[in-house]
Amino acid sequence: MVAERVEVSGSRELDRARRYEHSALARIFDRHYDPVHGFIFALLGDAVAAEEIASLVFQRLLEALDGITGRGAGLEGWLYATAFALAGDRRRQARPDVAAQALWGLPPAEREVLALRVLAGLDAERIASATGRSAADVLAAEASGLRRLNRALKGER
Amino acid sequence: VSSGASARDLDRSLDRLLAGEHLSDGEASAPELSAAWRLRSLTRPGAEPAARSLARDLFLAEADGRRARWVHTHHVPAVAPVPRRKGIRLGQLTLLLAALMIAVTLGVILAIAADFSTPDSGLYPIKRAGESALLGLSRDPVGRSDLEVNLAEERLREAETMAATGKPDLALDALSARYAELRDAGDRLAAPQAHDSRWSGARGRYLDEANKPVLPLERELSQKGYPSWAKQAAGMASDFQKYLEQLRPRLGVKAGGGAAPPTQPSPPATPGATG
C-alpha cells in the first residue's frame, strides 16, 4: 500500500524535479533505476517484468511529483513502495525464488513491510511514512512477518 | 509492552544484519534473522544496458513533454511598465496654483508696504529697487523723464519726513537722490528729439518740480537743531540751481523763467554735403 500523500525529501534537487527539469530527473533516474530494478527482480525473479515495472515506476514518478512534499519517506520510500505495489500485480505470472515465494505467501501488511525493510533497506519510520502505517504497526508486522517467513522457509505451517 | 520491546530489539538486530555488522551469538541464532538473511540474499542482477537506456529515454522524453506544459502553465506574460504620465497632474497643478497665489499675495502686500516706506524703513530698499525696475522698463525719453520727476517729488517728501523725525543724514540722502533724478530727467529732456506738445508738457512739469524751494526742509533741519545739515541742504540746492541755469537754454527757456517756443533740433548732417 502506498500512502496517498508520500512525503519525500524537500531538497533543491527535488524542487527542480517538480519543475520537470531534465538534468534533475536524469540524475534521479541514474541513481535509483538499478536498485529499483534489482528490488523487483528479487521479488519476481523475472528480468523482463523487472524492466517493465521499473520503467513504469519512473513514469508514475512524473505524475506523482506534483503531490510530493518534503520530509518523511523520501524519494526512495516512494519508489520502492510503488515498485512493490506494481510487482504485486504481476506476481502470479512470475516464478520467483523460494524465499520470495514465501514472502508473497505472507499476509499483505507483513510482506510489504518485509520487502521494504529487508530488500529495499528502508527503516521502520520511512516505511511507516511511505505506507501510511504507524511505526509501531510496522515493527509489529516486521516481527510477526519474520517469524512467519522463517516457518514458511522451514516448511512449517 | 514486552512484545513492543521485543519488536524494537529485533529491528535493531535487523539493522545490524542489513548493514553487514557482526551479530552476537544470540542474535545469529535467532530464526527471524535467519529468515531475513535468506530474503536479503536473493539475487539481484543489474538491468540490461539496452533496457535501462530505453527506459531512461522514455522517462526523460515524458519529462520533457511535461516540462513544456509546466513552462506554458507557469508562463507569466511580460507586462510593459505603465509609462509615467508627462506633464503636471491635477494635484501638482493645484499645489502650484496655491503656491503662486500665496506668492502673488505676499508680493502685493510687500509692494504696498514698501510703497509707503520711508528711508529709515527696512522695506525702503525694496521700494527703490521697484522704482529702478520701472525706470529700466521705460524706453521712451519723455515718459522716463516724467517718471523721474515723480520720483524726485517723492524724494523731497521723504527728505522732509526724515528732517521732521530728526534724521538729517537720511534727509540729505533723499535730497541728493532727488537732485540726481532731476539732473537725469533734465539731460534726457534736453537731448535731441522732437519737441512736440508732449515734450512741452513734460518740460513744464520738470521745471515746476525743479523750481520747488527747499527752504521748508532747511527750516525744519534748523529747528530740529541741525543747522550744519541745513546749510548742506542749501548748498545742494544752490548747486542744482547752477545746473538748472545751464539747462534752461537747452530746454528753450528764456532767462528769467519764461518758456520760449521749443526749438527744433538741427537735422543731422547729410553725408557728402558741403558747408
Total beta strands of chain B: 0
Globally, the shape of chain B reads: rod-shaped
> N-to-C terminal Cα separation of chain A, in Å?
26 Å
Mean pLDDT of chain A: 87
- Report the major sheet of chain B: none
Report the uncertain regions of chain B. Answer: 259-275
* Mean pLDDT across residues of chain B: 85
Strand-and-helix sequence of chain A, N→C? HHHHHHHH
Which chains share the greatest interface? A-B, 44 and 41 residues
Percent range for β-strand residues of chain B? under 5%
- CA(first)-CA(last) distance of chain B: 148 Å
Largest sheet of chain A: none
How many separate helices of chain B? 11
Structural classification of chain B: mainly alpha
Keywords, separated by commas or semicolons:
heterodimer, A: 157 residues, mainly alpha, 8 helices, globular, B: 275 residues, 11 helices, rod-shaped, disordered C terminus
Short overview:
The complex is a heterodimer of chains A (157) and B (275). Chain A is mainly α and 157 residues long.
Ordered list of secondary-structure elements with their pairings:
The complex is a heterodimer of chains A (157) and B (275).
Chain A lengths: L11 H7 L3 H23 L2 H18 L9 H17 L7 H7 L3 H12 L4 H8 L3 H19 L4
Chain B lengths: L1 H17 L6 H4 L2 H10 L8 H25 L16 H26 L8 H14 L3 H24 L3 H23 L6 H14 L4 H9 L3 H24 L25
Helix pairs in contact in B: 1-3, 7-8, 7-9, 7-10, 8-9, 8-11, 10-11
Describe the structure.
The complex is a heterodimer of chains A (157) and B (275). With 157 residues, chain A is an all-alpha fold. Chain A has 8 helices and no strands. In chain A, helix 2 packs across helix 4, helix 3 crosses helix 4 and helix 4 crosses helix 7. Chain A starts with 11 loop residues before the first helix and ends with a helix. Chain B is mainly alpha-helical. Helix content of chain B is 69%, strand content 0%. Chain B contains 11 helices and no strands. The longest helix of chain B has 26 residues. Chain B starts with a helix and ends in a 25-residue tail after the last helix.
